[in-house]
Amino acid sequence: MAGRTVVISGGGTGIGLATAQCFARDGDTPVLIGRRADVLARAAAGVDGAVALPGDLTDADDVARIARTLGDRFGTVDVLVNSAGGNGSREPGPGDDSPLAAAAHAWTVNFRVNTLTAVLLTEALRDRLASPGGRVLFLSSIAAYRGSGSGAYAASKAALHPYAADLARALGPRGVTVNVVAPGFIDETEFFGGGMPAERRETLVTETLDGRAGTPGDVAETLHWLASHAAAHITSQVIQVNGGAERGH
TM segments (predicted)? Predict the structure, then answer.
């Protein structure tokens, strides 16, 4: 299955970049999408065959432009990895100290960066997915099962689960699979900004059964496998990658 076009949102850093490296080893062409052109350019320069395609995935017009560019250059999209997103609390504040304004901002921002980005890009590319053999993958979170403190981030990730199920049902007759990967605590990403207190990190690691934090590569290899021929009969599933910190479901 070498030589595929693999579109990866949020491909400039962390899990997205590690995923690009996995596919590049197969001779596939990773197309990295994200808001920061400089970050994407550096990432693409370090991944064999990678292409940087900057854009704002919260803007419908920009997503339509991205889809046209992909269509003109590559035609078919073999794999779509929706990795863009993050901690909405790191976005600029609402400029209003009232509790309701803060709540409205937190929920709006989290759904915009974590849910809307994935939905808009997927809807823009669904007719270009390879049929059969196309793969659509979403990045959720352990928070979708246990909450995130404020609720907004967790809800924005959990929203991807029923969307993926509906999409799997719609695309299944075309031979396209749709799955979700829900990581636990992952080191070496930008999610926590400048880092977290040592005691908080120790607590998260202690929750795992293997006694370590996850790495971007742990998640990337799972995504890579779900996009392989070996996983052709797996669809509408949520695969947890968390060292056993959350079990079942």
Answer: none
Look up the domain containing 87 and give its range: 5-241
CA atoms within 13 A on the CB side of 61: 0
Residue 39 lies in a domain: yes
Specify if 247 maps to a domain. no
How far does CA 187 lie from the centroid of its chain?
A: 16
Number of domains in the chain: 1
Q: Which residues of 91-113 are buried (b: 16+ CB within 10 A; e: fewer)?
A: eeebeeeeeeeeeebbbbbbbbb
163 labelled catalytic: no
Instruction: Provide the CA 206 distance to its chain's centre, in angstroms.
Output: 25
* Of 111, 138, 145, 153, catalytic: 153
Q: What's the CATH number where 96 sits? A: 3.40.50.720
Averaged confidence pLDDT in the chain: 94
pLDDT(248) > 90: no
**φ, ψ (nearest 5 deg) of residue 16:** -60, -45
Q: Please indicate, yes or no, if residue 249 is contained in any of the structural domains.
A: no
Q: In sequence order, what are the residues at sequence separation of 6 or more whose Cβ sits closer than 8 angstroms to the Cβ of residue 47? A: 17, 20, 21, 24, 30, 32
Q: Is residue 248 part of a domain?
A: no
Tokens found for residue 27: 């001779």
Residue 216 · residue 188 · CB < 8 Å:
yes
pTM over 0.90: yes
For the chain, report the end-to-end CA distance as a whole number of angstroms: 31
